[in-house]
Design goal:
126 residues, mainly alpha, 4 helices, rod-shaped
């Protein structure tokens, strides 16, 4: 698995990016214009404007944090899936477990059935 397998190919289209940026610009401009035209004292308008700026800042921080959390979980999940896929690809359910045993061992009575070594089982990364 290379790094390109971990990167999502769900990139947004140019039209979507344009629409999101224009919608944000229009909503922010209309809110700030509404605050400027309110029949209030200047310090009250400044208080509303500062609250708006803090809200926008917190919204961006929350969106970034949620995106980062989602991406980190997705990468771990894909790594776990790759490890499981490799383990399942190497496992042959139709293999005879006694095929690896030397026939001479059968006659001497010391044949043993190969078992799964727990050290070979990958541990999940969390």
């Amino acid at each position: 698995m290379n790094n390109n397998d971990l990167i999502s190919n769900n990139a947004p289209s140019t039209a979507w990016l344009f629409q999101v940026k224009v919608a944000f610009g229009i909503s922010a401009a209309s809110l700030l214009t509404g605050i400027a035209w309110l029949p209030l004292d200047p310090w009250k308008r400044a208080f509303l404007a500062m609250g708006t700026l803090f809200l926008v800042n917190a919204t961006f921080a929350l969106a970034k944090t949620l995106r980062d959390e989602h991406e980190s979980k997705r990468v771990h999940t894909r790594l776990d899936d790759a490890r499981l896929g490799k383990l399942l690809a190497e496992h042959d359910p139709f293999r005879d477990p006694l095929a690896a045993v030397n026939p001479a061992q059968w006659q001497s009575g010391v044949a043993h059935i190969p078992t799964l070594n727990p050290a070979h089982i990958p541990t999940p990364v969390r």
